[in-house]
Amino acid sequence: MTDLRVAVITGANRGIGKEILKSLASDGFVVIGTSRSQDGLGHINETINDIGAKGCGLEYDVNDKDSLPSLNSTIKDKFGPVSVLINNAGITKDNLLIRMNENEWNDVLDTNLNSIFRLSKEFVKDMMKLRYGRIINIGSVVGLTGNAGQTNYSATKSGILGFTKSLAKEVGSRNITVNSVSPGFIDTDMTNQLKDDQKNALIQSIPLGRMGTATELAKTVSFLASEEASYITGENINVNGGLYM
């Protein structure tokens, strides 16, 4: 294990990604947050400055496979090799299957699943040299339960589970763990857009009777990135208040 622990968090400008960045920074990691927009980049750097963390934000679109080696080189030149990768970036383009077009299907698969293939392949090379690493993929409860209007999104989150288990078997001998975390309904900007009656209906289906917080999810990710979780790999942890048991 390297003395300097460097963590990359994709989609770190808001919501869950932002809280994961803050949690890992509090654990002593150098944190690199990515965003595909300059505005998002500003939010990441502001967060890093506010908490006094070491690291920076970098502009990167997870669909841009050509600039990925350059991203990795920039990080290594500034901070050293990446030992923790949090694949968090994702999008939704909901529609009933009968109305879903090819772009709505392909865009979600490319951002949510193909990007995990690309980023993991790029950064796991250095982890294998280090003989140490943590890859943590952010899934979703709908990857386990399905959800009407989200065949594209649910397919990507189900795919993450198989990817996680398969890669865990490939790299375990190099002291690299690969796990996923599947949140249920988390109180973020996205869920805040729901109407009160929609929120109440959702909460009634959750045994704990409330939405989760981004901090609760982030702490689970921090645990999987820690030494305390060194014997856990190929697993999925549900953080959903009992919504799916």
Please give a structural write-up.
The protein is an alpha/beta fold and 245 residues long. The chain has nine helices and nine strands. It has a seven-stranded parallel beta sheet, sandwiched between helices. The protein has a two-stranded parallel sheet with strand order 7-8. β1, α1 (15-26) and β2 form a beta-alpha-beta unit. α1 runs parallel beside α2 (38-51), α1 (15-26) packs across α9 and α4 runs parallel beside α6 (151-171). The longest helix is centred in the middle third of the chain and has 29 residues, at 102-130. The radius of gyration is 17 Å and the shape is globular. It starts with 5 loop residues before the first strand and ends in a 6-residue tail after the last strand. The model has no long low-confidence stretch (mean pLDDT 95).
